[in-house]
Amino acid sequence: MAACPFCEIAAGRLHASVVAQTDRVMAFLDLRQATEGHVLVIPRQHVETLFEIDPELAGEVMQLGVRVAQALRTALRPSGLNLWQSNGAAGGQEVPHFHLHVQPRRVGDGLLRVYADRPPAPASRDVLDALAARIRPFLSP
Question: Which of 14, 66, 104, 115 is in Cβ range 3.0-4.6 Å of 78 for a Cys bridge?
Fold first, then answer.
């Protein structure tokens, strides 16, 4: 298996434009700027997906994500912002290392055009309530 590029960045063996970092988490600019200021926030420890990350570490990733979002709002003055996190190939995850995308948004930037052109129809409250009931028993304390 090839070396994980995000682990290489976290170890300082691969260059990245670092925006912020703590002992356990770091944020750097994505090489492919889907929107100007597109930042990735990662745990330094290798964790592939949300399914494996420790909740405390996930919280640290989100905390740094919030700080980055606030900085982007001041620095770039975007009209909006997306947080995006993908898991597994079916979810669109390209790098098998947990990461949170922080993406400044502008009206008409085209990032989510496919979804905006054909959003899913709203589900009924009964369907949503039944789905919530199926999920709740599996939430850990």
Answer: 104
Q: What are phi and psi of 102, to 5 degrees?
A: -115, 110
Q: Which helix (DSSP H) or strand (DSSP E) does residue 130 occupy?
A: helix 125-135
Q: Where are the domains of the chain?
A: 5-138
CATH number of 5-138: 3.30.428.10
Q: How confident is the model at residue 131 (pLDDT cuts 50, 70, 90)?
A: confident
Q: Cβ neighbours of residue 97 under 8 Å, at least 6 residues apart? A: 4, 5, 6, 7, 42, 46, 47, 48
97 has catalytic annotation: no
CA dist 63 and 60 (Å) reads 5
Considering the candidates 15, 38, 46, 99, report the single residue annotated as catalytic.
Answer: 99
